[in-house]
Amino acid sequence: MQRNKQGFTLIELLAVVLIIGIMTSIALPQYRRSIERAEATDAMVSLRSIYDSAKRQKAATSVAPTRLKGLDVSFFDADVNDCIGKFCYTFDPAYVQAQRAVGNNRYYAFRFYYGDNTYGRDTMTCVKGPAAGGEAKYDWICEALGEPLNGDSTTEYEIDG
Question: Residues 6 or more apart from 70 whose CB is under 8 A from it?
């Protein structure tokens, strides 16, 4: 008597589930890393727009802005705390900076200085490693910016003004 074998055995199903699990464990961290890179790149683009607008306002009024509101640039997803996405933007008379918001904590990541700084020209500071909240998440951005003006963990780069 011949048996008609249809379907899959339990071993075959377990092997497929195991393979899918392994593939997922490899792909998920890469996916998260690419999401973080996209968010950081978006923050850099937003920060540059905010910086350029703040610089124009400072040149016109001789006063550095203190909020996003009132600048000649707007963001549809900006909230009342000057946050856009997962980054919040703070203003100082000398600079504009982006901070990664994680819950109630803020981790400093990028800062654009106006030309009246130590170097006498517009610079961008990119915090590397532990100074950015204990992780080296944004080191790739710092390294992609080119030759730094100094070599410490808070690396400054000249930007075109």
Answer: 57
Mean pLDDT is lowest, of 1-10, 24-33, 123-132, for: 123-132
> Do the domain assignments include residue 31?
yes
3 lies in some domain: no
Residue 1 lies in a domain: no
End-to-end CA separation in angstroms for the chain = 86
- Three-class secondary structure assignment of the chain: CCCCCCCCCHHHHHHHHHHHHHHHHHHHHHHHHHHHHHHHHHHHHHHHHHHHHHHHHHHHHCCCCCCCCCCCCCCCCECCCCEECCEEEEECCCEEEEEEEECCEEEEEEEEECCCCCCCCCEEEEECHHHHCCCCCCHHHHHHCCCCCCCCCEEEEECCC
The pLDDT confidence band at residue 117, using thresholds 50, 70 and 90, is: low
- Do 159 and 115 meet the contact criterion of CB atoms below 8 Å apart? no
Question: What is Dmax (Cα atoms) for the chain?
Answer: 96
